[in-house]
Design brief:
- The chain has eleven helices and nine strands.
- The protein is of the alpha/beta class.
- It has two domains: 255 residues, no CATH class; 57 residues, no CATH class.
- The longest helix is centred in the last third of the chain and has 23 residues.
- It is globular and about 85 Å long.
């Protein structure tokens, strides 16, 4: 599967139960939805509010979902104008993540060394060392979030989101790529490797508005696992192993309005009864969403998105992670 474009037909054929999981929205209990009009011309089932179904993206419809870099130029420009969809080149992702790691390690160049112009890099070859008081397990447990994640180039760097160039495993720079590198360097048995890889996934989050981009992000995380597994064990992972990763990914990468913390476009105006006379005639008025009106993230009447707290083993509302003093 080491291609830039992950084919849904391939996933469905190799792991039949995985694609339904990648389409799942744990907040609504349904599938993620398109949340874009880009596909409306294809007919019923492709409008803004329609759920993304397996039938809509496989079989004769294979190839509808594709990375932004492979879309026609006019489509790219349209999405940039409508949704401010701007994808970041891999070298910028690497530069920014390196800065984060430099603070965490209190030391630079732990995972790679960038060229003088910062546009290329070379991965370090020696095992990563840690400062006093920190361990590789601490790095695995450190939580990372990519906001408005698109195809998740900051999480996994399978390809450069701008040029479309495929990036070899040993040169990947994503936040999850770095965690898995540490797993490879510090585990010796399969059981330990797979257990810690799962925790690496559980500590990586992202959210995205548009359903097609979110599916691509989920696919990139899943296929990254398959690629790392193949490189480590020289075989394909089992259906059960892939399913377990897909389940984590479907929880941790969610479809969300990042300003309101609700399902996109789920806020609405409500009609309320303000009085009723003796004859049963009711007077109503339209009440707008309080959260939208007052720009208060805790007062929306839309569907608040749920995310899994893996340490507690239960879902929580994403908005609960905000500073409660802002209520």
């Amino acid at each position: 599967m080491n291609n830039v474009d992950v084919l849904e037909n391939d996933i469905l054929q190799m792991y039949p139960d995985v694609l339904p999981e990648l389409l799942r929205d744990h907040t609504t209990g349904r599938n993620i939805f398109w949340a874009t009009d880009d596909y409306a011309e294809l007919g019923e089932g492709y409008d803004f509010n329609s759920e993304i179904t397996i039938e809509a993206i496989t079989g004769e419809h294979e190839g509808i979902i594709k990375p932004r870099v492979l879309k026609p130029r006019e489509n790219q420009k349209g999405r940039s104008k409508k949704m401010a969809e701007i994808f970041t080149p891999a070298w910028v992702c690497n530069l920014q993540i390196n800065y984060v790691d430099e603070v965490w390690f209190d030391s630079p160049n732990k995972f790679n060394v960038m060229s003088e112009d910062k546009r290329t890099w070379k991965s370090t070859t020696e095992p990563v060392t840690f400062p006093e008081g920190k361990t590789w397990e601490d790095y695995i447990r450190s939580t990372r979030l990519e906001i408005t994640c698109g195809e998740a180039p900051y999480i996994v760097s399978r390809y450069d989101a701008v040029t479309g160039e495929f990036i070899p495993l040993q040169e990947r720079i994503g936040m999850l790529d770095r965690k898995i590198r540490l797993v490879n360097e510090n585990t010796s048995t399969y059981d330990e490797w797979f257990d810690v890889v799962q925790w690496s996934y559980k500590n990586i989050y992202g959210y995205e508005w548009q359903g097609d981009s979110l599916l691509l992000a989920r696919e990139n995380l899943l296929v990254s696992f398959i690629e790392y597994y193949q490189a480590r064990f020289n075989k394909m992972p089992s259906a059960e192993e892939v399913q377990s990763i897909a389940y984590i990914v479907s929880w941790n990468l969610l479809q969300m309005d990042g300003l309101k913390y609700v399902i996109p476009n789920s806020c609405s105006n409500k009609e309320v009864i303000v009085s009723e006379d003796l004859f049963g005639n009711k007077k109503k008025k339209t009440v707008p969403c309080e959260g939208c009106k007052k720009n208060n993230p805790h007062k929306h009447n839309g569907i608040y998105c749920k995310v899994m707290d893996w340490w507690q083993g239960k879902p929580i509302e994403f908005v609960s992670l905000l500073n409660k003093n802002n209520k």
